[in-house]
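Q: Can someone sanity-check these two? First one:
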Amino acid sequence: MDVRKVMRGDKDLSGADLSGANLSGARLSGADLSGANLSGADLSRARLSGAMLSGADLSGADLGPADLSGANLSGANLVDAILVGADLSRANLSRADLSRAHLSDADLSDANLSGADLSRAFLSDANLSGANLKGTKMPEGWEFIVRDH
C-alpha cells in the first residue's frame, strides 16, 4: 500500500496501490491518481477537485460526499462505488463504468458522461443539468424529468 506517499502530501500517486486504504477527508485536489488502485478505499469527504483519476480502479470505494468537481475520471472503474452527495460537477467521466454506483443526491451538473455506463446505477435526486450524455448507457426505464426551479 502506498499510503505513506499520501501522508507525505505527494501529488504524483499515479499507479499507486491504495486498495482498501482509509483516506477519509484526504486533501488530494490536483493529485495525479491515474491508473491507481483505490478499490474498496474509504475516500468519504475527500477533496479531489481537479484530480487526475483516469483509468483508476475505484470499484466499491466510498466517495460520499467527496469533492470531485472538475476531476478527470475518464475510463475509471466506479462499479459499486458510493458517491452519495458527491460533487462531480464539471467532472470528466467519459467512458467510465458507473454500473451499480450509488449516485443519489450527487451533483453531476455540466459533467462529461459521454460513453459512460450507468446501467443499474442509483440516480435518485442526482443533478444532471447540462451534463453531456451522448452515448451514455442509462439505467433501464430511466426517464428524464425536467423540474422548474
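And here is the second, same format, sequence then C-alpha cells:
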Amino acid sequence: MSTIALSTAINEITCPHCGTAFTVDAAQYADIVQQVRTAEFETELHARLAEAERTRQTEIALAVANATQQSTEVAATKDIEIQKLKATVFRGDGFWTSSCSLATTKLPCWS
C-alpha cells in the first residue's frame, strides 16, 4: 500500500518512491487519492475472490469425499446382504437350490 506524505501546504505532496515534492491543486490531489483507493480496492477484491474460490474448491472436495464414503458404505452393506442371501440358498453339497424346493416335500407315488 502506498502512502502519500503531505507537507504543511495541502498543494504539495512527496513521492513515496523518489522523495520528490510535487505541487498539485485540490482536483489533482483528489484524483491521486482516488487512484490509490481504486488500486487498493482492486487488490483486496482479487484477494477475496481468490479466497472464495479456494473455499469453494475445498467444499467440493469434501462433498466428493463424503459421497464416496457413503457409496462405499452402501456397497459394503449390500455385499453383506448378498452373502447372507446366498448362504440361505446354497446347499452344502455345492449345488444351488430354489426356495420352492426347500418348502416342498416328496409326495408318494400313487401308481
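A (reply): Looked at the second one. The first strand starts at residue 5 and ends at 6. Residues 5-90 form one domain.
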